[in-house]
Amino acid sequence: MNNRMYLFVIPALAVFGTFWIWPFLKLFTYSVTDFNGFNLNYNNVGFDNFKAIFESGILFNSIGNTLIYTALLVIGGNLLALILAFALNSKIKGMAFYRSAAYIPALFSAIVIGFVWSYVYMPESGLIASIMNLFGLDGSSFNVLGDYGKALYGITLVDVWKNVGQTMIIYLAGLQTIDDSVLESAEMDGCTGWQAIRHVKIPLLAPSITINVILNVINGLKAFDYPFIMTNGGPGDSTNTLMFSIYKMAFTEQQFGKAAAFSVVSFIVIIAITAVLLVFMSKKESEME
């Protein structure tokens, strides 16, 4: 009877194997071919695809942009979420409304957020440019998404804004699990408000910090939505992330073989970064405890 229970796993395993494991394995096959996505009579080209993406510079540019995006998302998102969590953990009137308002952006899809912020950033007639004009400033000079040096920071800010509520909820849940007796003991020992936060609350939030950092790192490393919706990788290659570069190479340039090789390298890079970070965060969590 107990062995029959495993039969119920077969449909799920079949779907998982068909739509994830098999395509994943085929990725390695296509990475050493000149497959263009249509013609099945492709040729084996060995490691030429890997050599081409390394020599072209697109790989290092994409990795650099992705790492900057991820670092800003992790640092900015977690700091802002921590501040919000501490503020919304206090007892003030209308707390339920403020908590809901902080979480609302997380409820919308990335495509909606991307289009809305594209209009916010729009030169001359956008929200920010209109406010600048209202105060006598030149709103036409405001063009974040059209500036090579600022576009990446502009779309990262949008991602931080969208996900800060979700990150805040995890911190808020962590704060509410802290026993009041611990805080009372710290107060009796002469801890000020800041000292209680620094030496009591933040160490007790170590598991929440680990979860949020890992989630934000994964979110940053697979960034695709906002570079696609808001800038299409531009201006130039300033917002080309790993995922967007793979998409562009495969579906715009029809170089599926090279895109597969790019995906293999990206997979290795992401796994390595995530594994190292997970070990580091686990170690820091143990030290904080």
UniProtKB/TrEMBL annotation:
SUPFAM superfamilies: MetI-like. Keywords: Cell membrane, Membrane, Transmembrane, Transmembrane helix, Transport. It holds the Pfam family BPD_transp_1. Belongs to the binding-protein-dependent transport system permease family. It is found in: Cell membrane. Residues 63-277 form the ABC transmembrane type-1 domain. It is a multi-pass membrane protein. InterPro entries: ABC_transporter_permease, MetI-like, MetI-like_sf. The chain crosses the membrane at residues 7-25, 67-88, 100-120, 259-280. It comes from the Bacteria. GO terms for cellular component: plasma membrane. This is Sugar ABC transporter permease. One of its GO terms (biological process) is transmembrane transport. PROSITE patterns: ABC_TM1.
